[in-house]
Amino acid sequence: MPHIYAVTNVPPEILAYGMAKYSRSKQSLEDNLRELSGDQAEKFLQTFYFDYGHASIADLAHIAVAIEDISILAAMDIVDEPLWDGQERSTRYQNFDRSSYYCPQAVHPAYDLITQELFDLYRHIQEQSLAMLTDQYPKPATIPEKRYARTMRARAFDIARYCLPLNTLTSLGQITSARVLEQQIRRLMASFLPELQEIAHELKESIAKRPAIDLSQSGNKQPLMPTLVKYTEADSYRLALRNIFEPLAQKIPSLPSTNVELTFQPPLLDSQVAQLLYAYGHVSYRSCLAYVQDLSNAEKQELLSLAFSERGTHDEWPRLMRQAPLQFDMVVDIGAFRDFNRHRRVQKISQQINPNLLFAIPEPLIQARAEGNFVTSLTNHYSRLSSLDLPTQLVPYLLPLAHKRRFLMSMDLPEAAYIIELRSRSQGHFSYRHLAWQMYEAIQSDYPEFARHIRITPPESFNPFQR
């Protein structure tokens, strides 16, 4: 008979040590864990993790962390981790009307005023949308009043969220392995945003030095992982890649593009160099590919060599070089980007937010011919932003969720089908429903033999009372 049991209330580092010891001990996991001490765990991890680079041991230590009172802008970068699991406050189901917002040090005098104008617009569009939706979709007799009110309010949030500024405070919880957490901290430390650098240092402190909140009431006053992340520093390789490729990427000519463009994997050398450039520019992936394809083979290899010239002893290959057969270059509103950003079986390269991409208009307002105030208010908002001499790091905080962002999302066919089927459903947000449909149309055009097996929900199939 197999002997199967669960264990609980074991500190993450002790559990990682006990699991790793399986390969070196005949003892059971229970016996291994009972004889361990924190000092033994630290000695083992020091030898096998730090000295020999056996990072897989850190995959065995998992930890739950709350990251609260951070900007939506910062949250987008925090969750951009391929093996990340967590949840963030939803702009589709929570009212952010009275939310606080992130204020950088040495803030511009107009910062507070511009922020409040966006919150005022959020409040106005929310009220306008709720009235519009209840008039357009009267309550059916079969639906309880509370459920109807909750559904209409949530659909009003779907529209109003376009107005929320990216400095709006949000919160998220995450459960990750120590290895993912270490990669996340290093990446955030290398960010150009001071807020993300501060979050990275606080993450490190809360795990390696400060006692964790113990809900078991066991009286434990120790930090959860005093060893695994204590030597974590900024990702110098990531910083070096930015310094190498950003000046080159800014010079690439921009070709005309659409909101969703599908590319089937081009020659490997071309795609790898194009992806490195795409990450640090503002042009489409097709523009980057065209630029690279005009280079000589020697020039391409030289750029690739540059990418590896600063790679440290324990640095992995650049995440920017990961890929899959289907590559969707997408320009979406940031609200929809946050939804797509949660998919994990994809490789994503997100460009820095470009103020010149401007904003999307909520489809329900267009259909009801009620977009006038929204468009006028945001047009004036962007005009004011461009007239102020704001630091580059400050501008993204004052952009709304309606602002557009470009990113490259690579995946295989099963994942494309999963995203299209999930995101095209009637209860989904109207923005990403249309994006899912455009993804489907792109696959249908190039690979109809596969597209016919995708269970797509057409945009016109819509039940306003389904959430």
SSE topology:
Blueprint: H1 12-20, H2 29-35, H3 38-51, E1 62-71, H4 72-78, E2 85-88, H5 111-136, H6 145-160, E3 169-177, H7 178-189, H8 194-208, H9 236-249, E4 260-264, H10 268-278, H11 285-293, H12 297-309, E5 326-333, H13 334-340, E6 347-350, H14 363-367, H15 372-387, E7 404-411, H16 413-423, H17 430-446, H18 448-451
Antiparallel strand pairs: 1-3, 2-3, 4-5, 5-7, 6-7
Can you walk through the features of this model?
- By secondary structure, the chain is α+β, with helices and mostly antiparallel strands.
- Among the domains are: 12-71 and 169-208, no CATH class; 236-323, no CATH class.
- It is built from 18 helices and 7 strands.
- It has a 4-stranded antiparallel sheet with strand order 4-5-7-6. A 3-stranded antiparallel sheet has the order 1-3-2.
- Helix 7 runs antiparallel to helix 8 (194-208) and helix 10 crosses helix 12 (297-309).
- The longest helix has 26 residues, at 111-136.
- The protein starts with 11 loop residues before the first helix and ends in a 16-residue tail after the last helix.
- The model has no long low-confidence stretch (mean pLDDT 91).
Summarize the structure.
By secondary structure, the chain is of the alpha+beta class. Among the domains are: 12-71 and 169-208, no CATH class; 236-323, no CATH class. It has 18 helices and seven strands.
